[in-house]
Design a protein that fits this description.
Oligomer: heterodimer
Shape of chain B: globular
Distance between the termini of chain A: 29 Å
Strand order of the largest sheet of chain B: 4-5-6
Strand content of chain A: under 5%
Largest sheet of chain B: 3 strands, antiparallel
Helix content of chain B: over 70%
Number of domains of chain A: 1
Number of strands of chain B: 6
Number of strands of chain A: 1
Structural class of chain A: mainly alpha
């Protein structure tokens, strides 16, 4: 049994490392396609993100300072580690800490350039973290209270789908997800939309291979985040929850695209107020309820 | 073996006397490092000797701690005389500066202790107790504390070079520093509450004297604030002891922890109150913030190895008897609340030392909360937090001090590009900051364990702690990251500057750096050999089993990975010479990433500043409500303890 767990962990990690960029890139491609259709355009081919990144990789790497490359590589590696921990079925809280660490490296990469746009992006990225961190930690706690385990495998092998106990936290997570996916209304630090008042925010000063690495890291990250959505739904004792989980992931991603195209970007202080209110009204309430009802 | 104990307590006092007498700079150059190194060696020898000697459950309460010295009337008399001296010092200063509140506080508690000492019947107890927590504290005080003294030698020379308006009183300064170390040693080894109270008072008075070092008006005001707040705590301590001796016949920790008597609830709450004042929890945080006016070694000492650590040390000692009582709720709530609020306030500060001060209070809040919840896992996390916090905070204070001496400013905004100007210093500072909040360093791991334990604890107060930690972690990440960002932010034309930092400062900083790495790498053995058995001793057999070893192993793997990743990243990037470009600006870059050509053809210079969000988290918004909330909580919970005790006594009658 212990061996099986180990084998599954290895399979999970290898699959994540190899497949996640393709899944993430494809999702990004579909995202652009949907967006285009919503805006009445034809849009680029679904594989466009891959073309973009491969072109970036072929370009010469230029930097603004020596440290940039190091920080960006760290960002990518930590995101990969986050996903690996998750798909190996290990501790969820640890995944989130690794995710925070990764995000800090991106912030530092932006900080290292003495550029107003990049700096502003870094500050705003930090603010975004300030906004979603409480909910992320509460989600880990919520899973623990609902399933008695912080470990992903333990959560998957609980008696029922966690969503039964954590509906409010699920909604809260969907609400802050735009901040993690870089979508409106919470794309204040950097945006893929043309209408961005701080140029490209955190990625303003990144070029060529460095920018490509950030893109790839985001693909990895998106897959991890959808993994968390999946974790809300899936339960190993009921096979159909696994299929349902995948469907919910796709639906949530589509909803994110929809929100992205229908909402205007908010100001940072509104974002802080909104997300912390969500954290208290949905997150804290949910944890307290489960704690006493279960 | 007993000789080492005597040496550790008495030698710092002896060093203090020598330093007060030998007044020349040349003498200090020899005496300070030698005494410091002797104390470090003694502390290590002490740990090596005593750790194996402590039994499996060798700790206070529930176990067989190693205890020493029963008949010590002579020592008691010496201490009484010492207390008189302390009283005279306080009275002299208080009358001189007309602070009559301090006079009242100190006289009242002196009289209470006089009654306890001379009038009341006390059982014979072991006066000293050595267990694993003692050993950990001795190592922290001995190593970190001594290094700060050594650092202080070089620092004070530069300090008086820059601050010609301050009258040099270095013999006095170093004497008090060493006295502080001696008092801390005594404090952490005491089993007798009366002994501990004596050392407790010495630390209060020492910090008062150190904070007032510069004798400016601000320094004197702040030192008196520190004094009255700590005296208030001392009063709580004294009343607690008086109550324990008269009603329960208890004068020592081992009796207190073994006692099932319901009447100890109130004195425990009072002792905990003393712990809260000393560890600068809200509403008593002001004294530690004001302590920054003193030269850096003082701040470093107060914040990392001594003083505030005495507070949380006492709270951790009391943890097993506090758990699930109003006293525990008080400590947990105040600690958790302080952790959250002060981490928000830290965001709004740009003065490096002020950020460090708020972060100290915040981290101590977390330790306090761990003690208040009083579960084996939380105590485990609390002890680790103490260890990691001591090393990284001491390192940070020293590097900020060195930067201030080198650049003339300790403002974080002026640390832009430190990595280019002072690479070595920046490196040390970065490691220190990472140690405060990032993986792989222990603070994060301890926070992780604390969060887990809070959820497991299973009562409402612990659940509230979870929420405090969830929000407080987010704010903590914010203020540290923006500091890190400032250090590595590099405008084009910055050049390397010459280091003015002296040898003793570097000596201390590099040892801190090595310590930091060693503690991280030796995390598992430290837990398995020292902290887990300590927890077993405090809570009964195998309480530490709750800290699952497989989880620890996972953490360790993560830790190693996280050390390896930057190495890989560095390996792949450091040698390559990528083409350098100028940063993108709102016009043509002048060529230095600072100025650009604006739309009128003139030059505009860019000044980049971090966010401080004064209008969201500012002191003017948060301070008063926080103080009132904590005052109400403290008064309420102490009243609840008193109520419980009175009902218990009433029931007996």
């Amino acid at each position: 049994m212990a061996n099986m767990t180990f084998i599954w962990a290895v399979v999970g990690v290898v699959a994540y490392i190899i497949l996640a960029p393709f899944v993430g890139g494809l999702l990004a491609g579909f995202d652009r396609k949907f967006t285009a259709h919503m805006q009445g355009r034809k849009g680029p081919p679904v594989l466009q993100p891959f073309f973009d990144v491969s072109k970036l990789l072929k370009k010469e790497i230029t930097v603004v300072n020596k440290g940039q490359r190091f920080l960006v590589v760290c960002f990518l590696l930590f995101i990969v580690i986050t996903g690996c921990l998750f798909f190996a079925g290990l501790d969820l809280l640890m995944c989130f800490f690794a995710l925070t660490t990764a995000a800090i490296f991106l912030v530092l990469a932006a900080y290292s350039a003495h550029s107003a746009y990049s700096h502003m992006g870094a500050q705003r990225e930090l603010l975004q973290m300030l906004c979603y961190e409480p909910i992320i930690l509460l989600i880990a706690v919520g899973f623990y209270v609902a399933t008695d385990s912080f470990a992903v495998t333990g959560i998957l092998h609980g008696t029922v789908s966690p969503i039964v106990w954590l509906p409010l936290l699920f909604i809260a997570f969907v609400m802050i997800l735009p901040a993690k996916l870089g979508k409106s209304p919470f794309d204040i630090s950097t945006s893929h939309h043309a209408h961005q008042e701080i140029v490209k925010g955190v990625t303003t000063e990144l070029a060529g291979g460095n920018l490509a690495m950030v893109e790839i890291a985001h693909w990895y990250e998106d897959v991890f985040l959808l993994g968390v959505i999946f974790l809300f739904i899936a339960n190993m004792n009921h096979w159909w929850t696994i299929i349902l989980g995948v469907i919910v992931c796709l639906v949530v991603y589509f909803i994110q695209t929809l929100i992205d195209n229908t909402c205007a970007r908010v100001k940072w202080n509104e974002m802080l107020r909104f997300t912390w209110l969500v954290a208290i009204a949905l997150g804290v309430t949910n944890v307290i309820l489960v704690y006493y009802l279960r | 073996m007993v000789e080492l104990i005597l040496f550790l307590i008495l030698f710092p006092f002896l060093a203090a006397v020598i330093l007060a007498v030998a007044r020349s700079q040349a003498a200090r150059r020899i005496i300070v490092p030698i005494c410091g190194i002797l104390i470090i060696i003694a502390a290590i020898a002490f740990a090596v000797q005593w750790l194996p000697a402590i039994g499996v459950f060798g700790a206070m309460g529930g176990g067989t701690g190693i205890m020493l010295v029963t008949e010590a009337h002579v020592v008691d008399m010496v201490m009484l005389i010492g207390e008189v001296v302390l009283l005279v010092v306080i009275l002299a200063f208080s009358f001189k500066y007309k602070r009559y509140f301090c006079v009242v506080l100190s006289v009242v508690q002196f009289l209470i202790m006089l009654v306890v000492d001379l009038v009341m019947d006390k059982p014979e107890v072991y006066q000293l107790n050595i267990d694993r927590l003692t050993v950990i504290m001795v190592l922290i005080v001995g190593i970190v504390g001594s290094l700060i003294c050594i650092y202080g030698f070089g620092y004070m020379k530069d300090y008086h070079h820059h601050h010609t308006d301050v009258k040099p009183r270095q013999p006095f300064f170093f004497a008090i520093l060493f006295m502080f170390l001696g008092a801390m040693m005594g404090l952490v080894m005491s089993n007798s509450l009366i002994w501990m109270y004596f050392f407790w008072e010495i630390t209060s008075v020492s910090s008062f004297l150190l904070i007032g070092y510069t004798r400016t008006e601000e320094a004197i005001n702040n030192s008196f604030r520190a004094l009255w707040m700590n005296l208030l705590g001392g009063l709580g301590f004294a009343v607690g002891i008086c109550f324990l001796v008269s009603n329960c016949g208890i004068v020592s920790f081992d009796q207190l922890l073994a006692s099932g008597n319901g009447a100890i609830l109130l004195p425990v709450a009072l002792l905990a109150f003393a712990g809260l004042t000393k560890s600068a929890q809200l509403p008593f945080s002001r004294w530690l913030l004001g302590a920054m006016v003193a030269p850096t070694p003082t701040s470093a000492l107060l914040h990392s190895a001594t003083m505030v650590k005495a507070g949380v040390y006492l709270l951790l000692r009391l943890a097993p008897v506090m758990a699930g009582t109003p006293a525990g709720y008080m400590v947990a709530f105040v600690g958790g609340f302080t952790f959250l609020i002060t981490s928000m306030l830290a965001i709004t500060k740009s003065d490096g030392k002020q950020v460090l001060a708020y972060s100290t209070i915040s981290n101590l809040g977390l330790i306090t909360a761990c003690a208040g919840v009083g579960m084996p896992e939380t105590v485990w996390a609390g002890v680790f937090l103490i260890i990691f916090h001591a090393v990284s905070k001491s390192m940070l204070f020293q590097s900020v001090g060195a930067v201030e001496n080198a650049t003339g400013s300790r403002d974080i905004e002026s640390m832009t590009g430190l990595i280019v100007r002072y690479p070595k210093m920046a490196f040390v500072m970065i490691i220190g900051i990472c140690g405060m909040f990032l993986a792989p360093f222990g603070m994060l791991i301890s926070k992780w364990a604390a969060l887990k334990a809070f959820v497991d604890a299973g009562d409402f107060i612990s659940l509230i702690m979870v929420f405090f930690v969830a929000f407080g972690s987010a704010t903590t990440v914010f203020y540290w990251s923006k500091w890190l960002g400032k250090i590595i932010s590099v405008p084009g034309k910055f050049e390397k500057c010459e280091h003015k930092t002296g040898g003793t400062e570097w000596f201390s900083l590099w040892i801190h750096f090595v310590l930091m790495i060693v503690i991280c790498l030796a995390f598992l053995p430290i837990s398995g050999l020292v902290v887990a058995p300590l927890v077993d001793g405090m809570f009964g057999a195998f309480a530490s089993a709750a800290i699952s070893s497989s989880n620890l192993f996972t953490m360790f793997v993560l830790l190693v990975l996280i050390i390896i990743i930057p190495l890989i990243a560095w390996g792949t990037s450091h040698k390559k010479n990528y083409r350098k470009e100028l940063a993108y600006m709102a016009g043509i870059n002048r060529g230095d990433d600072i100025g650009f050509v604006n739309s009128f053809g003139g030059t505009t210079e860019v000044n980049l500043s971090s966010w401080y969000m004064e209008d969201v988290f500012g002191e003017h918004k948060l301070w008063k409500p926080s103080v009132w909330i904590t005052i109400i909580a403290i008064v309420g919970f102490i009243a609840a303890s008193a109520g419980t005790v009175l009902t218990a006594i009433g029931g007996v009658l």
